[in-house]
Amino acid sequence: MTHTTPGFVCAHHHLYSSLARGMPAPPLPTTDFISILENVWWRLDAALDLDMIYWSAALGASEALASGTTCIIDHHESPNAIEGSLATIAKACRDVGVRVNTCYGVTDRWSDTGQLSPSVSPSTKMSSAARRGLDECHSFIKSGGDAMIGVHAAFTCGDETLHAAADLAKSLTVGVHIHVAEGIDDISAGERLEGLAQDNWLLVHGVHLDRQLLGRLVHNPRSNMNNAVGYARPAHKPNTILLGTDGIGANMMEEARLAYARLREDDVSQTPETVAQWLTNGYELFPNAKQDTVVWSYEHMENPWHTAFTTHMQPISVDVDGERVYEDGNFLKIDIQEIRRKANEQALRLFERLEA
Q1: What residue ranges define each of the domains in the chain, with the CATH number in brackets?
Q2: Could you tell me the pTM of the whole model?
């Protein structure tokens, strides 16, 4: 027996992280959230180029498709390959057959000479890298690209950059996609963003958010646990809650099962319907996903009491915008073996840079 659903929406992804698997061990111990960023992700960001970005996005998009996810809201950073990065991601997803809304996450942590700044405060002036990131978002949107204005996080941006991002988003009638209070190092995010956030903003994590902000809140349970930043208690937040992966794949059924287990650990009275609603809320940002069609190997996909406790549910076929793009394990628009081969080549290049 089979069952058909719309395509799923991953409300927060980092497609460039697809190349991170197997990367060299961090040069220093990662004992807290900041040391993870400094020794893993910020080093990786700085090593990316456009070839790496394309094949990483293509690999991530194909894996999303194979799990029934047809729409990805992506957040990207590559301080040494800013210009053209969003068009590169969009092309990779288009080639695979996945819808994407992307952004460049601006930050002032990179100095104008390309070095990691030792600290950023609210009074820090906008860096040229942040300005170029805003320009990349602006030019991509003006060219017809589906995007938001990206900001890394309040604690890595001065107020000038935060205000510029908010103003640009308002002028383009799009939202801002930003990590908010993921770790305690960003505890002041609520205060700094309170007068800026709008209903169309995408607030990611919110683990240590100390007040209500306008916007939708994206919960990323697996990433939060992996980084030991705490539990966001999304069911207690007044915002509309969406579900993302923070770059750890795009299998939304798997993420939803984990989200439910974490929810029940916090409140045993909760039911699977809560997490099912978080998944459904993704259609507010990607309504076209409702027109996509996923045929599953499992007959009870409409029942969250089944899906919360059932593993190995596999898509048999996926149609995006009326076009069959995946069937019986085969990708119909791309050569998946080439993508895996090219992604592996780019990963090895990336690892060499990291080791150097």
Answers
A1: 3-355 (3.20.20.140)
A2: 0.96
